[in-house]
Amino acid sequence: MLLSSNDIFLFISFAAFTGVALWLLLRPLRGEASAPGASRGDSEVALYRDQLEEIGRDLERGVIGETEADSARLEISRRLLAADEERKKTGRTATDPRWRKGTALVLALAVPALALGVYLAEGSPGMKGQPFAERLNVPPEELPLEGLVLRIERHLKQQPDDVRGWELVAPVYLQLGRFEEAANAWTRAMLADGVTAGRLAARGEARVMSNDGVVGPGAKQDFEKAVELDPAEPRAQYFLGMADFEAGNRNAALARWKELLETAPDDANWASAIRARIASLEQRPAISAADEPMIRGMVDGLAARLAKDPADLEGWLRLIRSYEVLNEMEKARAAVAEARATFPEDEAALARIAEAEKSLAD
User: Fold this and answer.
1) Which pLDDT score, from 0 to 100, does residue 98 have?
2) CA 193/CA 166 separation, integer angstroms
3) How far is CA 129 from CA 1, 4, 126, 134, in A?
């Protein structure tokens, strides 16, 4: 396909801009060899100092505990002292910078030339352009899910009080794993059209999902307000039962779920999940394959979080109880062993772990 002069000019312009961007990015490669901080020793010292500062920030955010922070500081300080001694002893400087200039020149010329060549060979330079807005203005059934979200978001920027739009996009956010955005969408719906039990329960569910499946204080407050408005709100009652169970109140959870089933409509699609929960707690047949993925989501998320941050006693206790719900007693006992190994000197923690282990034999 022949290219017009405008196409050629456009491609050459893009190549030139790419070259300029690469030159700016690679400019540090031209630095003088004797510049301060250019040596390997200087770089290592700066790196370890940054890591010490990062540990302090992680401790303030609660990402790590005090014990982990002290251990990490000790190790990094040891490396910092060693790097500083090595720097003073060798006094090494960077190598001849001429190779840097050559590398920068080759990259600045080769990358845009290669990109242009590949596009001309494999791309469609003669294809008529289609603005982004036009691509969204097609029938909804022709759009992917992400495209539908973009269309609704564009509409909501123009009409932020459209409650229907917020109610449409919130469940999609949940489906896409964008849990915090789903919670915010339900908040906007309530600001636009008032608080209802259903909207509170939906926002609470999004908050639970964003918290690795654990019913946190904010979500629990949403569910409690929902049942005040409508005691029969099934989603709120279900998650309040989860909150009871996570707090160790197994009987309260069972009572809440059984009462919910007694008032459930015959065609309620959520009733099977409730029955599976009750069956698990009462040591009846295992959860069905159809219901297990929903129930397992909380357990997998909690286990992954504990693998990264094991210094969370409440998290271990919830994981033990969750495996008990799934009738996976071997995993529950393995979690007991890992929890004990995490808190070997904490008598109060060990006592609570022992109590959780005792419930596995009940």
Assistant:
1) 58
2) 10
3) 16, 14, 9, 10
Rounded Cα distance between 288 and 327, Å, is: 12
Instruction: Give which of 260, 284, 285 is closest to 274, Cα–Cα.
Output: 260
Residues in contact with 260: Cβ distance below 8 Å, sequence separation at least 6, in sequence order:
234, 237, 238, 241, 274
pTM above 0.70, yes or no: no
- The residue count of the chain comes to 362
Cα separation of 248 and 358, whole Å? Answer: 12
Tens digit of each residue's pLDDT (9 = 90 or more) over 150-168: 878 888 888 888 888 898 8
Contact predicate 312/67, CB 8 Å: no
Coil, strand, or helix at residue 352?
A: helix
Lookup: tokens for 360 = 């596995």
Distance, in Å, from the CA atom of 274 to the CA atom of 269, rounded to the nearest integer, reads 10
Q: CA 288 to CA 347: how far, in whole Å?
A: 39
Amino acid of residue 105: L
Q: How far is CA 124 from CA 117, 227, 304, in A?
A: 12, 58, 44
pLDDT at 245 (0 to 100): 84
Instruction: Tell me which H or E stretch contains 336.
Output: helix 329-342
Do the beta carbons of residue 272 and residue 287 sit within 8 Å?
A: no
Q: Which amino acid is at 194?
A: G
Low-confidence stretches of the chain (pLDDT < 50) are: 1-3, 32-38, 92-94, 130-136, 284-286
Q: What is the pLDDT of residue 135?
A: 47
CATH level 2 (architecture), domain 140-292: Alpha Horseshoe (1.25)
| Contact (Cβ atoms closer than 8 angstroms) between residue 152 and residue 169 | yes
Question: Would you state the pLDDT for residue 132?
Answer: 43
Asked if 204 contacts 239 with a C-beta cutoff of 8 angstroms, the reply is: yes
Contact partners, residue 145, CB within 8 Å, separation at least 6 = 172, 175, 176
The pLDDT of residue 105: 66
> What pLDDT sits at residue 199?
94
Where are the chain's structural domains? 5-122, 140-292, 293-360
